[in-house]
């Protein structure tokens, strides 16, 4: 990846470096742009080392990536989605076992991102199973390099209970429908005043910054995916 691309997508790089990330905003505000940017940048930066578990209730937002060799699981049905999160938890536990054997405090291998496109769907259909799993992953995933990325257009307490939200120090707030939604995401109002599309407030422990979210067009995303499909066919890549 060239230096110019690094600079262009530095905000996505910074987001990928966070333990976990919450992305929230109204329909059409740009959540998919952020998620695509994160996946694209992870593939550029980490190449073969990047791994994903993709949970896609809408069946369209993340389907482009489901055949990639980097994707450990792709799930779009309720039972599959719960199983995928359980699988992420199992990977986390396996990594802790390896860390104990090696007597180290941080996993030495590649990062795994668990990306959930619309968390409200999961909390509507499987809250009893999903809530403790996500809470536990967010609590222990950092040292195991298992990162949870939650996206939602419904940032209410029923979808984002305090037990989960408190583990997400890094948040991307896009335009919201109301001042209350902004408070639910960032703790203060203002997101409701952002342009309808493309701008966000990026909150992290070091402070909050307003960004125009870099847009990666469909042709470039498809080029990246095609590259990895060809690499897989030529057996240049394996897990």
Structure description:
- The structure is a single chain.
- By secondary structure, this protein is of the alpha/beta class.
- The protein has one domain (3-233): Rossmann fold (3-Layer(aba) Sandwich), CATH 3.40.50.300.
- Helix content is 45%, strand content 18%.
- It contains eight helices and eight strands; from the N terminus they run ααβαββαβαβαβαββα.
- It has helices spanning 3-8, 10-16, 31-46, 78-102, 119-144, 162-165, 179-186, 218-233; strands at residues 21-24, 51-55, 71-75, 112-116, 146-152, 170-173, 199-204, 207-212.
- Strands 3-2-4-5-1-6-7-8 form an eight-stranded mixed beta sheet, with helices on both faces.
- A hairpin with a 2-residue loop joins β7 and β8.
- α2 packs across α3.
- The model is unreliable at 1-6 (pLDDT under 50).
Record the SSE blueprint.
Elements: H1 3-8, H2 10-16, E1 21-24, H3 31-46, E2 51-55, E3 71-75, H4 78-102, E4 112-116, H5 119-144, E5 146-152, H6 162-165, E6 170-173, H7 179-186, E7 199-204, E8 207-212, H8 218-233
Parallel strand pairs: 1-5, 1-6, 2-3, 2-4, 4-5
Antiparallel strand pairs: 6-7, 7-8
Q: Describe the oligomeric state of these chains in a short phrase.
A: single chain
Looking at the structure, the CATH topology is: Rossmann fold
Write down the overall mean pLDDT.
91
How far apart are the first and last residues' alpha carbons, in Å? 21 Å
CATH class: Alpha Beta
The total beta strand count reads 8
How many domain regions? 1
* CATH architecture classification name: 3-Layer(aba) Sandwich
Low-confidence stretches: 1-6
The major β-sheet equals:
8 strands, mixed
